[in-house]
Structures are given as C-alpha cells and as structure tokens.
Amino acid sequence: MLNASLGAVEQIYVGVPPGSGVRNAEHPARRSAQVGVGALSMWATGSLSTPAAYGAQMAAAGKKLHGHGARRRARSPAASVSDGGYGPPCHPVRVLVGQRFWPRYGLRRRPFVVFRVAADGTVYGRRLDSAGGRVKSTALRLTATRVDGEGLYYVFLGWSARRYRTWAVLVGSQGGESCLVFPEWHPARCVVFPRRLLPPDADAGAWMTVRASLSAVAGGQLNPCAFACCEDPGVERCPRPAVAAG
C-alpha cells in the first residue's frame, strides 16, 4: 500500500511537464520534494539498489529548477547596509575598560576585551575565545590610526555591554525635542532626545558629560542619563562630531 501511494506521487510529478502552467510546476521546492519521494519509492521497490544511486537521483533534482537554479533579480534581495548608511564608527582616541579590539598583525590574532588600563599607558586585555588568554599592549598602539581613520595596529570591534562616562553634543532643538550626537558612539548619527531632560543652560553646540550604553546598536538603546554641561574635552580625548550645530 505504501509503495502504491509513493508511486502515485511519482506519476503526478512525471505527468506535469515543466512550463505547463500547473501550480506544481511553478514551485521548484515542491517539485524537488516530489522527486525525492519518487526516488524513495524506487529504492523501496528495488529500482535503486544502493544509497549512492538514491543520492544521485536527489542531486539531479536540483538541475530541474527553472533556469537550472540560476539567481534572478526577482529572487535576489536588493543590496543593503546594516549601519543605516552612516558608515562604521570611528576608531577610539582613548582606551577604556570594556573596549574590544582585534590585532592586525601577529601569529595569534584573536579578539580581546580591555579589562585594565594602567596609569603609565599599559593596557591589559583578555581574549574572547574559550582559552581566555591575557594580552598586553599600550594605549599608543591601540589608538594609532591610518590615513583613512581606521586602526593601524588594531581594529576596533565595539564596546562591551555596560554604561560608560562619555560626552554628548547638542546639535539643535526644535519644539520639545533636541538632537544629540555621541561622538564616541558614532560622530555622524543624531539621536532625538526630549529637551526637558537636558540642562536648561545647554545651547546649540554645547558639550555635556553623560552616562550611556555605548554598546547599543540604535540610538534609542543608548539610555543616556546624568547630563551636565562641560567644556570641550579636546580632540585628544573625544572625536569631533561630524554633524554641524545649528
């Protein structure tokens, strides 16, 4: 009874020629499934004597797709970027606990996270693999950049999930909303924030200290708090915002 039902499925597949307009012929996945069931019935009845022959039959099913499985514009998604078109974040100008780096040179190139920064500029890290080996470097090597702004010796991978003491720049305000830029998170991305939660004396172009989750992938996940107006920290401590205030 089982062989008869499987054979019936095989006959349905053979009876639908390609391009006939029948619904089964327009779905390659459904057709390939029918081919697989038909090959299984042939193996069960003795037509396919070995599993290798069954595998060959299954492999041949992929060749019967429309256009031999070639990619088409209708089936291929459009190219997109995950950073919203802003580009990657800039390389850090200072080293903090929780930053993640990947060395460009060396025999054992493994990503690591910074867990200690000494007063003399020595940086200690822990590899992110299962071994968790120790890494020792200097702040000068970690912050060195190339002409294009990327790291010279190390690639900056991002931040660990924690809150950091950083800076924010008030780009402008309109109504009850304000536009902020967190240069250490991304110097070209504006974050909309309620104006009433900012210091009253903050004007356009003002710098503020703030605590935020710099590991966030979207501006709404930064969760900034504890705003306080301050002086410009300088280019040696914080990158310059790429959005002009106004």
Task: Report on this structure.
With 246 residues, the chain is an alpha+beta fold. The chain contains four helices and ten strands; from the N terminus they run αααββββαββββββ. The protein has helices spanning 2-14, 28-45, 51-61, 139-143, and strands at 99-103, 112-117, 122-127, 134-138, 154-159, 164-174, 177-181, 190-194, 207-212, 225-230. The strands form two sheets. Strands 4-3-2-1-5 form a five-stranded antiparallel β-sheet. The chain has a five-stranded antiparallel β-sheet with strand order 8-7-6-9-10, with no helix packed on it. A hairpin with a 4-residue loop joins strand 2 and strand 3. The longest helix is centred in the first third of the chain and has 18 residues, at 28-45. The protein is globular and about 55 Å long.
Query: What would the average pLDDT be, to the nearest integer?
Result: 78
Q: Kindly report the oligomeric state of this protein.
A: single chain
The overall strand count is 10
Q: Give the CA-based shape.
A: globular
Low-confidence sequence ranges = 1-16, 24-29
Structural category: alpha+beta
